Amino acid sequence: MAQFLRDVHLSNLKVTEELLIQLTEVFTNRAQILHNSATAQGNEYKEPFLTFILRFDNKGYRLFTCDDLLLHFKRADKVERVVISIETRESLTSNRHIGEHLEVKFDTLEEKNCSLSVTSDHSDWVDASYSAVMEVITKHKTKTGWIRSGWSTLVIQLLVPFQFNFDQLTGQH
Prior knowledge:
Radius of gyration: 22 Å
Strand order of the largest sheet: 1-6-5-4-2-3
Shape: globular
Oligomer: single chain
C-alpha cells in the first residue's frame, strides 16, 4: 500500500472551462514528473496515464485529451460528473493499493462524491500535487457556500417563530 495519502472533500465549487484547463495543466505537470522518474528508473510500471471522465446528459465518456474534454463539456446540456486522474500502471494493476495516483472528482448529483485524493510512496510528490491542485481549486470556490451550511438552516429555523405582520408594523389595517 502507498505510504502517503492526502485527501479532502470538496464543496462550493463552480466547474468551468477555465477550471478544467488549469487543472489539466497541473495534472500534466505532475504526470511529467512521474514520467521522468519512470524513465530514469527504466520502470514501465511507474509510467503515468492522464485520463478524464465526463458524464453528461445520461452518457459517460472516458477521454484522453483536454481538447476532447472541453469539446464535450461545451456541448453538454447538463454535466453530471467530471473526474481527472493520473494513475501509473502499478496503481492500475493493483487497484490503487500500490503506486501513485492523483484524482479530483466533481459530481453535481452527489456533493459527497466531490473530492481530491493523492497517494504515493513519495511524500514530496503527494504534498506538491495536493498543494498545486488545491491552489487552483481555491480560486474557483463560490461565495454562496454559507447559504447551504447547517448554521444558515439553524438561523432560519430560529427566526421563523418571530415572523410578524408587515401591516401591523406600518400601522395599516
